[in-house]
Structures are given as structure tokens and as C-alpha cells.
């Protein structure tokens, strides 16, 4: 996937956030030679934010991040500085930062490219955050399947540590260096849930924990812990280097700043587009070259497979947390998947349902049993062998999963089923008699076939 940038002649600041513009910050140097090295990162102003952070107290750092209105980029959008402030006062015992890099929801693909192309931004952000919360040991929980990214992260941590950049002022006694541990998970979607991640990091099977206590009070090894996503932590150095006002000049009234929007699917040029919150899907599709020639947009999702489906009617909804929620969906991780008129909604929802059924940890009955039965029905409908009443049964099962499972995976599994039926009920009911492959041939949806 390619990255996209605006004209370098554009000035920084408020004028940089005009509607429809891009704001390359984390992605600005992705395409440059050896952008992942410390040498390159320092040449473009890297670690200026950390230098400023070392002149500030933890309270001042937390206050600055609060003032920037940075919100978590893992999907929930919770205020970052406020989350840090939940940790109890320092008591001389360890406290931890855990970076969630277990990116695995269908369509989500921003954190892994960030680590691959610009790992030092994450490492600098870890150093600043650790100083703010009073910790000297941080963990990055990464998917073990992405071996090349894991190796790059290990090399980047070693390079930063050997340079001495992480060696002063982080210990509980003011002398111990900051240690960063890159941990490769075995590969489980459930470990993207923060408490299941903690269980996995401690060497147990990844299962979500009952809350309270929350991680801020009793997290990793029972100690106060901050858990943030890669993009959140990597955004912190820019705020330290350029100030809260710079960050607040971007975005909307309640959704400040910039974010990476991952546009995939039936567009001419899929890619990562870093833009202020409030940009619209219509504008992002234009940046991506439009829908592939000869076709029209049928449906899209704003935040990955776990968010309710949108149609062309929502193309002009501002992509910020409040506007997307007001329109009936969730911004999530900004994994914008685009499907044109050749695509079967039933086929797409069936693939997503198979994913959630496979990834359910099995801890709670609604998710464990409900995803199994949804999968069976979805496969029947896709094959044109549905039984009259299957659509209503799907609605009933999904409604009994949503809001009743131990963690959010159950809600995520129910969402595409319910929103798919709501938007395209006739297509689901067609599955009583006609296979999806006849209504929407595979060949027509293939980008490779259409290019021939």
C-alpha cells in the first residue's frame, strides 16, 4: 500500500487543516530511504519531543497531553492524558506501559506499517509516556506472524538504547535506564483486548479479565499499567515537539488532531491517508483515485469489520468519533473497506463471521455458541441453501450476543450481521434460493480479473 502526502509547500498550523487536505505527520517520511533507522529519524527532528519531556515533570507531561485532546487510536477514542492520570500515586514499586500492537481485525492495517516504516516515533513516544507515568519498563505486544516487523522493532529498540537516548532519568530512583521489551504473541485476535493481552504477556492463555479492577490500578503483574495502541503512543512526540495548540488546530471540535485512514478494497489506489479528523469518505476515495473504473460504490465500513455498514448515503459524514456515531456506526480503527457493485454483502459478512467464530476465546456462552450458529446460517445463505426464517434467526442470535458477552468480541461479531441485514435484507433473503456466487460471480469482484 502506498502513502500519500500533500504539497510540501503547505504551511503548518491551522491552515494545514482545510477540509479535504492531508496532514502527513507519522507517515511523512515513510517513502524515504531507510526511514526506519535512528539516523534518518534524527535527521528529520526525531527525539526533539523527548528532549523537551526531560525538562518537564510527570504532572506537566500528563497536563500537556490532556491539553492536546489526544484520544486513543485503538478504536475506543478515550482521552489519552485522562487515561494516564488514572494511575495511583507512585509508591516506589514498578508500574508499566504496554503498547498494544496486536493489530488483527479484518481491514485494519495502520500500526504494523507504522512500526515497519517509522519505529523510532513509537520508541520516542514510549520514552515520553514512561516518563509521564513514572515507569522504567515498557512492553510492545506484537503479532508473532509479522516476523519482519518484529525484527525491525527489535533492531530499532537496540539502536535507540545503544545511542544513550533512553539512558537517563527514567528509573524509579532516577538512574535506571528505560527498558523496552518487544514481545511476539502467538497470534490471537482476542489478545487485542487489553486484559486478554495482559494474560498472554504474563504467560497464560489470552482470556479477557473481569473488570474492575482496571489495568490502571491492577494491570500487568498486578501493578498499575497504562495500555495504549501504537498510533496513540507514536503521536505523542509530535505533541511534545510542536505543542498542544499545533495538535488542536487539526480535526473537529471534539475529535482533535490527525489520524491514519487505511483505505482498502475497490479503489484505484488503496493506501494509508493521514488526515485531520473530520475528513469525509468521499474525499478519501478521491485521494485514492476513485472507485475502480466501470463500477460504483455499493457499501463501505468506517472502522473495520466490527463497525456497522455504511452505503453511499453516508459518504459526506465527517469522519470523527461523534459524527460517525451519530450516523449509526463507529470510527473504530479507521479501517475503511470499500466494496463496489460486484460484491455480495452476504459473502463478505460470512467471511467476517467465520473470522469471529474462529477467534472467539470460548470463555463466555453467548460468543462461543452464538458465533458458531451465526456461521452455520451465513454459510447456508451464501450457498443458496437457506431455510425460510434464517434471516430472522440470525437477527435473534446476533441480538442475544450483542451486549451480553464477556468482552467486545461478541459485539464485534454481531455488528456486521445486524447491519448487513438492516441495509441489504433482500440480498440475505435471496440466499434461500440462489447462491451468492450466481448473483455476484467471484470473477467480477476480483481486481486482478478486472484488470485483464
TrEMBL record:
Q: Which Gene3D superfamilies does this chain map to?
A: 3.10.20.600, 6.10.250.1450, NADH-ubiquinone oxidoreductase 51kDa subunit, NADH-ubiquinone oxidoreductase 51kDa subunit, iron-sulphur binding domain
Matches recorded under PANTHER family: NADH-QUINONE OXIDOREDUCTASE SUBUNIT F
Family, per entry:
Belongs to the complex I 51 kDa subunit family.
The reaction(s) catalysed by this protein are: a quinone + NADH + 5 H(+)(in) = a quinol + NAD(+) + 4 H(+)(out)
Against SMART domains, the record matches this protein to: NADH_4Fe-4S
Which residues does the annotated region (Disordered) include? 1-20
Query: What top-level branch of life does the organism fall under?
Result: Bacteria
The portions of this protein that span the membrane are: none
Q: Keywords for this entry?
A: 4Fe-4S, Flavoprotein, FMN, Iron, Iron-sulfur, Metal-binding, NAD, Oxidoreductase, Quinone, Translocase
| GO MF term (any one) | metal ion binding
Main function: NDH-1 shuttles electrons from NADH, via FMN and iron-sulfur (Fe-S) centers, to quinones in the respiratory chain.
What is the protein's name according to its record?
Answer: NADH-quinone oxidoreductase subunit F
The record's listing under PROSITE patterns reads: COMPLEX1_51K_1, COMPLEX1_51K_2
Give the originating organism: Actinomyces marmotae
Domain NADH-ubiquinone oxidoreductase 51kDa subunit iron-sulphur binding, which positions?
346-391
E.C. number(s) listed in UniProt: 7.1.1.-
Required cofactor names = [4Fe-4S] cluster; FMN
Give the enzyme class. Answer: translocase
Amino acid at each position: 500500500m502506498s502513502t500519500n502526502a500533500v504539497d510540501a509547500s503547505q504551511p503548518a498550523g491551522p491552515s494545514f487543516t482545510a477540509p479535504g487536505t492531508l496532514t502527513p505527520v507519522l507517515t511523512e517520511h515513510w517513502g524515504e530511504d531507510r526511514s526506519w533507522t535512528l539516523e534518518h529519524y534524527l535527521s528529520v527532528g526525531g527525539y526533539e519531543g523527548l528532549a523537551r519531556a526531560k525538562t518537564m515533570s510527570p504532572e506537566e507531561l500528563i497536563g500537556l497531553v490532556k491539553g492536546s485532546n489526544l484520544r486513543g487510536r485503538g478504536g475506543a477514542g478515550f482521552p489519552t492524558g485522562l487515561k494516564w492520570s488514572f494511575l495511583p500515586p507512585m509508591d516506589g514499586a514498578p508500574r508499566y506501559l504496554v503498547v498494544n500492537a496486536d493489530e488483527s481485525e479484518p481491514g485494519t492495517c495502520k500500526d504494523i506499517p507504522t512500526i515497519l516504516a517509522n519505529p523510532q516515533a513509537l520508541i520516542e513516544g514510549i520514552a515520553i509516556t514512561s516518563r509521564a507515568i513514572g515507569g522504567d519498563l515498557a512492553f510492545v505486544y506484537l503479532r508473532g506472524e509479522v516476523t519482519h516487523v518484529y525484527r525491525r522493532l527489535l533492531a530499532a529498540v537496540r539502536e535507540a538504547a545503544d545511542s544513550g537516548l533512553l539512558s537517563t532519568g527514567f528509573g524509579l530512583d532516577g538512574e535506571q535506564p528505560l527498558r523496552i521489551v518487544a514481545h511476539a504473541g502467538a497470534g490471537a485476535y482476542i489478545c487485542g483486548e487489553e486484559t486478554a493481552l495482559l494474560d498472554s504477556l504474563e504467560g497464560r492463555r489470552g482470556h479477557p479479565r473481569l473488570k474492575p479492577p482496571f489495568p490502571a490500578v491492577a494491570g500487568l503483574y498486578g501493578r498499575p499499567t497504562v495500555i495504549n495502541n501504537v498510533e496513540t503512543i507514536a503521536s505523542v512526540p509530535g505533541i511534545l515537539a510542536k505543542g498542544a495548540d499545533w495538535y488542536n488546530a487539526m480535526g473537529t471540535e471534539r475529535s482533535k488532531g490527525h489520524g491514519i485512514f487505511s483505505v482498502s478494497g475497490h479503489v484505484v489506489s488503496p493506501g494509508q491517508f493521514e488526515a485531520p479528523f473530520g475528513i469525509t469518505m468521499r474525499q478519501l476515495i478521491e485521494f485514492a483515485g476513485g472507485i475502480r473504473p466501470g463500477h460504483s460504490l455499493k457499501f463501505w465500513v468506517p472502522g473495520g469489520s466490527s463497525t456497522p455498514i455504511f452505503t453511499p448515503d453516508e459518504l459526506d459524514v465527517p469522519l470523527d468519533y461523534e459524527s460517525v456515531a451519530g450516523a449509526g456506526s463507529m470510527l473504530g480503527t479507521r479501517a475503511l473497506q470499500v466494496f463496489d457493485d460486484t460484491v455480495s454483502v452476504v459473502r463478505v459478512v460470512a467471511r467476517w463471521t467465520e473470522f469471529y467464530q474462529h477467534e472467539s476465546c470460548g470463555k463466555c456462552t453467548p460468543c462461543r455458541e452464538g458465533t458458531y450458529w451465526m456461521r452455520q446460517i451465513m454459510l447456508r445463505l451464501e450457498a443458496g441453501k437457506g431455510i425460510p426464517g434464517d434471516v430472522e434467526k440470525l437477527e435473534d442470535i446476533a441480538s442475544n450476543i450483542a451486549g451480553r458477552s464477556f468482552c467486545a468480541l461478541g459485539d464485534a461479531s454481531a455488528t456486521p450481521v445486524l447491519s448487513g441485514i438492516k441495509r441489504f435484507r433482500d440480498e440475505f433473503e435471496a440466499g434461500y434460493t440462489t447462491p451468492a456466487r450466481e448473483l455476484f460471480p467471484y470473477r467480477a469482484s476480483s481486481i486482478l480479473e478486472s484488470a485483464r
